[in-house]
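pasting for ref
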Amino acid sequence: ENIKDPRTEESIGTLYEGIRMKKEQLWSKYYYLLILLRGLLLVLVDVFVDFFPMAQISSMTLFNALFLVYVFKFVEFESRYLNWVNRIKEALILVAEILIMSLYYQEKMIFSRNLVGWLIIGIIGIVLMMELLYGCYLQIEAIKGLIKKIANYLEKRKKSTKTVEVFNKDLEKSQDICNFIQSVKWIANFLD
């Protein structure tokens, strides 16, 4: 099937959500699978490597470093804006993880730990804001599309109403003619 077909986009469009699929870049179709695997890795590392925080953060940092290379090399979205937003977001996540890893070695320096902690919170906050703003943008676009559909529907309904009005006028004229013919027949019968 053609993935540009609106019916295909409606049914399975969320599986590739704007990713530009090219034959020479077959790896781009695994983007959402890798995001799912990253979440799975986060849960597994959090549950099974609970006593080794450095192993937790280093495994996530390694995965995200490889994922960042993958995003820059293979993933291309339909929108240039979405391309850069995803690249910046993944780079910021990697920077936050590296800063979290640096906290492990700064046990005695309270001021620098606080500063790094606030930097991490700021970076994660920026990433969350980027996601939130993109979600709002998608909702606004969906509402615009819905408004256009409603306007088109109302326009079609208005045209069909005009057609019905013309038909009703023609029907009234034909009823007038029928009434006239019946009147003539009644008069003719009356005169006979």
